[in-house]
Amino acid sequence: MKIGALYLGSNKCHFNVWAPHANDIRVKTYFPEEKIIPLAKAGNGYWSGQFYNISPGTRYKYIINNRAEYPDPASNFQPLDVHGPSEIVDHQSFAWTDKGWKAIPLEDYIIYELHIGAFTQGGTFASAINKIPHLKELGITAVEIMPVAQFPGNRNWGYDGVYPFAPHHSYGGPAGLKQLVNELHKNDIAAVLDVVYNHLGPEGNYINQFAPYFTSRYHTTWGDAVNFDDNLNAGVRNYFIQNALYWLREYNFDALRLDAIDKIYDSSPKHFLKELAENVKAFSDEAGVKKILIAESDLNDEIIIRPIDEGGYGLDAQWSDDFHHSLHAIVTGEKEGYYIDFNSVADLAKSIGNNFVYDGAYSVFRNKIHGNSAILRDKKQFVVCIQNHDQVGNRAEGERISSLISFELYKTVSAIVLLSPFVPLIFMGQELYESSPFYYFISHFDSELVQAVRSGRKEEFLSFNWTENIPDPFSEEIFMKSKIRWKLLADEKNAAVFSMYKRLIDIRKKNDQFGIVKNDNLEVAHSEEQKFIRVRFHGTGKEVFYIANLGSGTIELREGVPPGRWKNIFDSSSSQWLGPVVSENTNRLIGGEKIVLYRESFLLFESEI
Amino acid sequence: MKIGALYLGSNKCHFNVWAPHANDIRVKTYFPEEKIIPLAKAGNGYWSGQFYNISPGTRYKYIINNRAEYPDPASNFQPLDVHGPSEIVDHQSFAWTDKGWKAIPLEDYIIYELHIGAFTQGGTFASAINKIPHLKELGITAVEIMPVAQFPGNRNWGYDGVYPFAPHHSYGGPAGLKQLVNELHKNDIAAVLDVVYNHLGPEGNYINQFAPYFTSRYHTTWGDAVNFDDNLNAGVRNYFIQNALYWLREYNFDALRLDAIDKIYDSSPKHFLKELAENVKAFSDEAGVKKILIAESDLNDEIIIRPIDEGGYGLDAQWSDDFHHSLHAIVTGEKEGYYIDFNSVADLAKSIGNNFVYDGAYSVFRNKIHGNSAILRDKKQFVVCIQNHDQVGNRAEGERISSLISFELYKTVSAIVLLSPFVPLIFMGQELYESSPFYYFISHFDSELVQAVRSGRKEEFLSFNWTENIPDPFSEEIFMKSKIRWKLLADEKNAAVFSMYKRLIDIRKKNDQFGIVKNDNLEVAHSEEQKFIRVRFHGTGKEVFYIANLGSGTIELREGVPPGRWKNIFDSSSSQWLGPVVSENTNRLIGGEKIVLYRESFLLFESEI
């Protein structure tokens, strides 16, 4: 059941709010005029009413039991931030011009993750639109937008959102977000939204005044967990399911990325994620277009992405932490935190071959057995990266991978990601060889909360023996420093990386081998001693294989090259990408000939048949 | 990995205890002599050592970090109660004489649930053995023993146990329990033990001194949940899995009944229950005998009993609350607590036909959608009853069903249970028409705890508007009043019920229809208005159907009788069972003839072909 202020046209509006314990619920409008309108009980704890003479733009709150006033839990817009009134939005008024838009299949996704505030100097949906030509030139096929739900103040990663239905006013609100999606579609780019169903932020979190949205049954780092399985859970489940459908329906999003589903606790016979997937599937069937759900999951549990008819929850894909961690650990040599669990080329090979490294193996970091086997799942069900907002911003200094490894290695890991059998994801600026940090930033109004965030972050890094000053998350300077420096493109090295990214994406798009990959047409070999990995794709069409040298020595390989005639079509060490090899390596390879792999280089070969 | 003091014969003993945070672990023996023996780290947080000159009967504790002494978490015997030392048991010394014993298949189980303390005046395993001739005469095929793990004092239901491996000293300890199982087997009766893996009792609960057995991630009515999925969970999982295997191996139990598995919280990719089932299966395969796991579950989640190769957890069966509640609600008219969700003959019919009544339907009592469909599961995967220790003892006054309904109705509900397509369970004394209460009783040493239990119980019943005095659970009188009155057999009415139970069990055993029932050879019809239910079994062999009149009026039925020639083989209203019908109803029925169903009566017909 739809919730919120549902504008029906002709100055008619239907209100529907879930408040099962309330004795009285009224709508109080503030603007353009003050009115108080009582709602009536509508069954199952909902209160509703349909009224005339209410125009879009009307601002309102709900009055509970004639005592306290709060914004709408399903507010579509919070023009005056988290403590202000909600605003009625007419979703019919936006003129979509992406009519010819056809959904891109998941296997063709090449995802670009961005944060609206930090992507551009302007920090708005509109200024992001100005960068679409750059994305189009780059060749990515999907943009994933970090959470936009209204959070307090103008600076926040988005995970402190408290109005899951309201695009942030400082980004440009509902109209701005629709325009961005519309323009992406017109440029053949899919739009993915990051949504948070495992908690709400601490400031402006009024929804518990309406109903038991949280339960003490489970305890998370954010406090009581969202109530997906305790008494009166139906309204809670409906709230988040409606949220998902709302973004797909009113904003034309193609996919949702579900934040940390491991913190969605649910012992019900039907897991919330399964119910969500069923609803999104029903919506897709009705709309005639496949909408996609991608989970961030720390569980390594294959059930999340197993199809419903095989007993799974039926999500389409999930992020692969194991891929990131094993690649990151090899190239940086880091062993802190969860990287202690990843320390070999074998781990990287296993993550590419078997999807999970921890598939029932004992994790030292976790002090427990972790994961189950996902070997039966398709490659396109995993999203991989060498950095994302978390892996960068959750470091004390927010360092990007570009500042942790050499230029040559940077190009090689980029190729491993972009030519992986999985769905690649790059983090904004990665294509520019951006090296300035992406910090953690907040702008709560509540100064006690700000202090709590500051100390929380200090404590977090103290446990890693971090002794230096932690950048202040509340500082506006820190936020400004996190923005992409677009002028980098004028520099030779940055331009070379951008050019190489375009080439790799072009190669990926032109060879179907990188798309629908099944386990039995993928072959992964590696050498721990020589620190190389070889991945061979042999489905139908032109076969390819790559060898990546992750070590600091030159490798001469004779054995280990698959039989047949091969042509080198990409060399990360080529002078074209400012590498040490003067001319592009165009050696034709006949089985038995040797390959020379310069330190930290990546070579891609295509079959000559 | 086995844990505890493992006696190896020839005065040799191997100790193994899990204490991952300890710096030092020693064994301190008290009896027959005082010794201190240091253990060594054995990997994965275990400490172990193998020593000579240690005889069975030796009493010991562990000393942690040279500071505090505690009994063994896996103590096999606590002769001096929960705070005293553990005692080494030689499991090889017991002479089993049940060698010819073959496991009874689950579909042939007719379960008799008993509480060792209340089953006999003696209240011991030995005195229970004296009652085996009675059980044999009755005809039940399995005895389910309420938990025997060491709890504080001599009076307790067993759910406050704190040494899951130690049969209570006041019941007769390890030797007594083995003797009971041995004698049951010699009388062709399977032995089922009720085990508690969702919490430990509050007094004498020292295991958390050794390792993180509990986690604050989940909150239960007993406090922090058992740590099945948080850091260092492997030792916790092993502890309970070893416990299950220990009862099956050392005590020859045939089956385990797992208490309230809905309070076993586990978000791991492999649920603890699945790992347990896998281990029990491996043990069964090795032993060449099928051991059985039966869950008490408040989840109505079919995954618990779905086979592992179909994606389930692989337990064999579960208790069916829905059957009990729907039958109880119809015959008592009660609407308090969870009975509010059951108020029609249709519910009973659905519980018999579809296994779950709440299979995704909205529960008013729970304020949420409850359950999923279990229609694909076999009938033998559900254990049904009209009363058990909980349904009796968790009433403020501990009333048995016999004191809540008429004599005629008592016989009818008995027949519905005993001739159900499921596995029937009767609660001790039920076959004697026992009407004295089965109270809730405890005997903690800690007086503050006793007071807490008293007030907790008062509060619980206050919520049901219970205003009278709640029987004092600490009172010894209350415990004595809960014992079965065996002299009842001398009374005519009680003897008639006992005789009828024997007949019904005999009928069940003689007709395979009641055994392996598939959904497609079961047909359930009912009338809400006339309050009758008809259940027809038509597999191979002699078909049967019964009609039960749960209302207070006579019913004349012409339509609604299946076609064919039928012979009445049981009539609960017959004078033989002190009913109003003078001669036993031996009407042969030809399709079209009418059946007269006296008020509250049950008629069973068998096909004449």
Which features would summarize this protein structure in a list?
homodimer; 609 residues; alpha/beta; Immunoglobulin-like; TIM Barrel; 3 domains; 8-stranded parallel barrel; 6-stranded antiparallel sheet; elongated
Summarize this structure briefly.
Two copies of one chain form a homodimer. With 609 residues, chain A is of the alpha/beta class.
Structure description:
The structure is a homodimer of 609-residue chains. By secondary structure, the first copy, chain A, is an alpha/beta fold. Chain A has three domains: 4-87, Immunoglobulin-like (Sandwich); 108-505, Glycosidases (TIM Barrel, Alpha-Beta Barrel); 517-607, Sandwich (Immunoglobulin-like). Helices cover 24% and strands 23% of the residues of chain A. The first copy, chain A, has an eight-stranded parallel beta barrel. In chain A, strand 24 and strand 25 (532-537) form a beta hairpin. In chain A, helix 5 (233-250) runs parallel beside helix 6 (272-287) and helix 7 (321-332) runs antiparallel to helix 8. The longest helix of chain A has 19 residues, at 492-510. The radius of gyration of chain A is 25 Å and the shape is elongated. Chain A starts with a strand and ends with a strand. The model of chain A has no long low-confidence stretch (mean pLDDT 94).
Any chance you could write out the topology, listing elements then pairs?
The structure is a homodimer of 609-residue chains.
Chain A: E1 4-9, E2 12-18, E3 25-31, E4 35-38, E5 40-41, E6 46-51, E7 59-64, E8 68-70, E9 86-87, E10 111-114, H1 116-119, H2 125-129, H3 132-138, E11 142-145, E12 149-150, E13 163-167, H4 173-186, E14 190-195, E15 214-220, E16 223-226, H5 233-250, E17 255-258, H6 272-287, E18 292-295, E19 317-319, H7 321-332, H8 345-354, E20 361-363, E21 368-370, E22 382-384, H9 389-393, H10 407-418, E23 423-427, H11 447-462, H12 476-481, H13 492-510, E24 522-527, E25 532-537, E26 544-549, E27 555-557, E28 565-571, E29 588-590, E30 595-597, E31 602-607
Helix pairs in contact in A: 5-6, 7-8, 10-13
